[in-house]
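Try it yourself: sequence plus zinc ion, in.
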Amino acid sequence: MEDLKNFQKYLLLRNRLFYKFNGENIRSAKEFLETKDIPSTWKAGLEAELFFYKKFETKLSLTPTLDAGDNSDFSGDYNGPARFDVTTNLDYKSLIDYEKSQYDWGDYYIALFDRKAREFEILDINFPFCDKCGEGRLFPIIVVEEANNKPFNWVSLYEACSYDGYDSQKIIEEQVLCPTPSELIEDFKHPSVQMKKRETLRKYSEALKRFFKYKNQKIPFLLGEYDYIITDREGGGYWGLNIRWEHPVLKDVYNPDAFIKI
Ligand SMILES: [Zn+2]
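Structure, out:
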């Protein structure tokens, strides 16, 4: 009950904020945000929505959505009808929350606001649904493989089903001057450096993401590396793809064994 009351209060504030922006101007909307007694957790989100509205109102033909029940903040046009969810933090976002609406309705984008840089990154999360199994979605994956002519390694971009790994296609393959993920993290074995290890892999993935963004419009959301995966005590196992990094919106939405076959 308290949650519902809070939610209604939030929507009321949001309506008034956009009314100030549309009916008056951005300055009075900002003033409203700064002077009104608004909980700081709400303020960050409302500020991001206001900036998004101001920046893309015309370019994306934005209209604020009235019902926040489908996780969208705006509807508009981005290569066709689209909905947008504006956020400052991806930790609370998961593809699962959008899947039903994407299936029933169409394209969704997450507009991630970087408060320091005052910039948005518009994330295309419209991964195609797999035609074969109907369960999974086709995710873009970077796969790094050791090459013979060090310090170069093979870096490929694949697209593969998150449920069974089928339909995998190699989109692009390049020799790149970069370490493999395991070379990069070989010194991070101790439990006390696991955070540093994750951060190192994140930065590495971000760099490769930029590389593929430049080469190709598909932005990778997973990073994998071939490994001998041991399954029994005698050292038996198989060669398969180990996922080393995942984009935060993909947490809990893919079958880790699906990509072994790539
Ligand atoms: Zn499939």
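One thing you can check immediately is this: Residues 138-261 form one domain.
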